[in-house]
Write a structure and sequence with these properties.
753 residues; mainly alpha; two-stranded antiparallel sheet; 2 strands; single chain
Amino acid sequence: MIQPFLKKLLIAFSGLTLLVYGTIYACADGDWGWSFDSNFTPETFVDKSYSPLFLSNDIFYGIGFDTEHLTRFNNENVSDWSTYLEGKINEKDLTFFLTDSSSADVADIILYYKNGKKNKFSEKWNKKFQINDSKTKDFLLFLNDAQTVEIYSTQQYDSWNYDETVQPQKLTNLNWIKSIEKKYNEAKDPFLKNRYWFLVMKANFYSDRQTNAVSFFYQTEKTMPKNTLYYRALAYVAGAEYKQKNYAKSNFIYSQVFDKCPTLRIVSAYCFHPQDQKDWKQSLAMAKTDDEKAALWAVQGYYNDEEKAIAEIYKIQPKNQHLDFLLTRLVNNQENKIDQSFKDKTVLQNKKRTKDSIHKSAIDLVTKIAQSDKTSKPYLWNVAAGYLETLNGNFKQADKNFDKAENKMPKTPLAIGQVRLLRFVNNLSKIDQLNPENEKTILADLSWLYSELPKNPIENFRYENASQWSKNYLAALYRSQKNTVMSEIFNHESSFYDNEKQLLAMKTFLSKENKTEIEKIGMSIYEIKLADINYFQGVKATFENKIPEAIAFMKQSDKLQNTLFYGNPFLGNIQDCHDCDHQASQKKKYTIIDFLTIINKMQDNVTKQADVYNNNLLIANAFYNITHFGNARLFYEGNIAGFGSTPDFFRDPIRNMITNCSLAKAYYEKAFLATKNNEQKAKTQYMIAKCERNDYYNKKYYSLNLSTWDIQDDKTNFIAWQGFKNLKANYSKTKYYKEIINECGYFKTYARK
C-alpha cells in the first residue's frame, strides 16, 4: 500500500542533484519479500530502470525507499563536466567540487578571480590544476552560482512532521535570478548554455515566483537538447503545475518524463497521481502521439490495472518497452492470487484452486500477444504465457511456449535459469501420481533446485518459492499414496514424531542403504537426522524413567550425547533460577550421557538400599531440573521436540512432558521417607511444595495453552500447598526453614499469616 502525502508533494531539482519533498511509506506485510512468493523473475528480460517499479510488498522493489534524492545524478554530472573540461581536473577533485562541501573553497577561488589576490584556497587548488584556465574558470563560476541555489534546493525536513504550516525557505532575490538568465543568454558554449538554462529553471522553481519556471521553460525549450537536464527541467514544470492544482497537466508531463528519462522513472512514477477519473481523462486527452498515450497508460498501469494498460498500449504500439515491465507486474499479481499451501489439500484440489485463482482474461491477453510475435521481446511474452498456461493446467501448451522462447531468448544465466525453473514447475505439475518413470523427469531439476542453486545462486533469480512449492507438492503426492515417511521427508510436520509407529518407520527408512534417487534427494534436504530421532527417544525415555533405555538411545545420538549442561543438573535450590545456576562456579561439567549414567547408578544404589536419602534426593533434583522449571532445559530441546523459552513454544505432548514434575515429586517423597533428621525433612517438604506449585500453574495456565494476555487474575495471592503446611506445622525450628524464609518471599508471607 502506497500512501503519498500529495498535499505536500514538491519535486525539487538542484543544480547537482535531485530531491523529492514529501513522504513515502507503506504498510509492509512483514514477509521475506516478493522473491520468496514468486517463480517469475522480472529482472530476466526487463530493463534495469524499471526495477524499483516491479511488484513488491515494499515501497519500491529491491530498494524499499527511494534514497537517491541527493545522489541520483552525481556520476552523470561528474562525467559531463569531465568531458567538458577535457580532463583538466582529475575525477577525484571534480567529484569533490560537484558532490562534497566545497562551497568555502569555491567562494575563495571566486574572490581571487575578482580581486586578483591569492588566498588559501586559490593557492591550494592552483597546485592541482590551472585555475586560470578558461574552461576551469567557467566551471567554477557556474558552480558558485549553482551552490547559491543549493541552499534552497537541499532543504530537508523530518519525514514524520505532518505540520503543513512548515514551508521551505524560498529564493526571493529575483534580480539575482535575472542575472543567471542573463548568463544563459550570453553563453556561447552549448554545454555552458545548457547548464545555465537548467540553473535558471531550478532557481525559478525554488523562488517565490515558481510559475516563472513554467513560462521560461516553454519560451526556451525548443533551443535545448533533449538530454537529462531537459527532462529534469520538465519535471520541474510538472511539479509547478501540481502546486497550481493543474493535476491533469502535471500528470501528463510526469508521464513524459517517465517515458523519456529512465533515470527519473522512479520519481516520475511516484509523483504521477490523478486525483480522480476526470483528471485521468483530461491527461489522456492531452496526448497527441502514440508515444504520449502509451506513456500515460504505462504509469497508470503501475498504479491500477496493468491488464487494461497492456491492452491499450499493445493496440497502438506493440513494441513499446513499457509493455515488458507491465507484463511482469501482471504475472506477479496473478501469482499473488494463489494460495500456495497444500495443507489438507490433494494435488488435484490444489491445481483446481490455482486455476480458479488466476484471471482467465489475463491468460487470454498474454497468450494473444505472445502468439502475435509483434512485441520487442517476444521470448518474454512466450515465457510468461507458458507460465500462465502451467497455472491454468494447460501443460502441453506451456511446453510449446517455453520451446518457442528458448529459440530466441538471450542465453544469459538468469534467462536460462528462469526457463528451466518454469519448465520444472510445469513438469512436476503434470504428475498426479508418482511412479519410477515420471520420477525420472524431475530428478535432475530437484537436485539443481535443492543443492546446486543454494550453493551457486544466480543473481536476482527467484527460486525459493519453487523449491518450497515442490516439496509441498511431492509431500501431497506421497500423502495421497499413503507413504507417510516420504510425505514427512518433503514436508516436515512437527507432530510427526509424536506417533511412535511413524517414528520407527522413519528410523527404518533413514537406516536403509538401497535408497532410490528421489529418496536420496529427499534425505539430503530433510532437516531431521537419525541422531535427532535417537536423542528424542532418549529424552522421552528419561521422562518416562526408563534410564537404561534412555542411555542406549543417547549412545546412538552421535555428538548430541556429549552436549554439556550449562549448570549442575543435580542441584536442588530454594529458588528456581537457571541463569544463576549457569553462572555459578562448577567443579565438574556434566554431559548428557554423564547425567543419565549417574542417575542410573544412583537408582541402582537405591535398589541396594545404599544412602537412600541422598540418592533419591539427587535423582529428584535431576528429574526436576530437566523440566521447564529447572536449570537443565537444554536436555529436552532439539530438532524434534523444538526450542523455546516458555512452554507455549512447544506442541501439546512436549509441553505436557516438560511441565510435569510428578516424577521429581515421587523421588522427593521417597527421599522424605528415608530422612534421618528434621533438616532433611524440611528440605524434602519444600521441594515437594515446589512440585505442587508447578502442578497448580500447569493446570491453571500451561495445559490451557493461554498466552500471557489471556491469563485472568483470579485474585488468588497465596495457596497453602501441603508441603508448605507441613513445613510450617512441623519444621519451623530448622535452619533450612529460616533459609526458606530469607529466600522465598512467597513462603515468608504465607508463614507470617
